[in-house]
Amino acid sequence: MNDKQAVFKVGDLFDIYPTKSYKMTNADIYQKAGKTPVLSNSSANNGIGGYVDLEPTEKGNVITFSDTTTGANTMFYQESAFVGYSHVQGIHPYNPELWNRECLLYVIATIRSSAGKGWNYANKFTREKVKNIMIELPIKSTYESNHEYTVYDIDFNYMQEHIKELEQERIIELEFYLKATGLSSCVLTDEDREILEKSREIDKSQNKEVLSSLRISESNRIQAEFCVDDLFTIETPKLRINANTVTVHNEPEGNPYVVRTSQNNGIRGYIKFDEQYLNPANTISFGQDTATMFYQERPYFTSDKIKILKLKFDKLNYRTATYLLASMRKAFSLFSWGQSKFDVDAIGGVKFWLPILMNDNNTPVVDFDNNHHPKGYIPDFEYMEKYIKAIQKQVITDVIKYKDDIISKTKKIVS
């Protein structure tokens, strides 16, 4: 371990300025899928909002963060070129030849540690404030107390090796986890492959009337547009609990306490409280002014400005909720709140696309009581569940391959 540390100002090592973005609406940016990542102001998925068929506006090997309200939680390393976004800042080394992936990941950890919490609308995480954050970095040797350290005194080799060691530890932990959970091998069944393939070829010329209010997804599934309140009841929590009046635990002591954060499934921590005020399991928690939404598998307490979305007809489960949330989040990302951000009617009126049940002749199954949709369309929940299950298998297969490759390379190095 290197115990020689020196304090540096972020602004002395890095230049910070806004990323370049296309002057387009989200609907236009995401109109055509591709391989170029688009940054967002999110604290999830490495800050990436999606992938598009546009030329990158920014080069890779930089750090990005949002100057909105969630502080260093939105700070990520971007390895490849990407499309910038409004309010996303880029942190660029003055000496890029010295900084590689591992060293920049090390810096992110130190900035997050030094930045702390308390960032909000009144105290925004701006680039000027980030430039003035003081961070500790390892140095190669010691000098007199009045020595002014520069970038060339930083022990880049130590940072690089330290991050690699941490990654190796996580890979070993992952291997144990996959074995313990029986996920070391995930083989796609024929049904899984059929779900993931474009299994339904549709003759648009013979379905003009049917398709007039519908659309065909990229996987050739017929989809209809549903309003949130077509499928969900929107309820107020049994009690809005103020965080200042309870003790919030980090460990699962008590029941989940759900707030408007975009992290950790909306769970700020766990609290012990009167259980008559628990909200029901298998529902979606929804932050009214943030549009943060998560599936809650177990009963939970909530803070202020949270609504409870309960599916009207089918019991929600993790996989169907995952599909629904993906569609809903995309719709809400395009929604302009304006003055209606606390309005339940505005939330209920947001429209999103879902696959629907179809007859063998490629016409929609119609519920004449119109329980799910004004035109009687019925969401194909079984397909949604099977689709997410197949996607999970694909993801885990990729994770296993990555894990095996890393372990194989490590063994060769050790040998």
Walkthrough of the structure:
- The chain is an alpha+beta fold and 415 residues long.
- The chain is built from eleven helices and 18 strands.
- The protein has a four-stranded antiparallel beta sheet. A four-stranded antiparallel beta sheet has the order 11-17-14-15. The protein has a three-stranded antiparallel beta sheet with strand order 9-10-18.
- The longest helix has 34 residues, at 381-414.
- It is globular.
- The two termini are 24 Å apart.
- Low-confidence segments: none
Strand adjacency order, main sheet: 2-7-5-6
Percent strand equals 15-25%
Element-level helix/strand string: EHEHEEEEEHHEHHHEEHEEEEEEEHHEH
Helix content: 25-40%
Structure summary, number of beta strands: 18
Main β-sheet description: 4 strands, antiparallel
Overall pLDDT: 85
| End-to-end C-alpha gap | 24 Å
Identify the overall geometry.
globular
Keywords:
globular; 415 residues; alpha+beta; 30% helix; 4-stranded antiparallel β-sheet
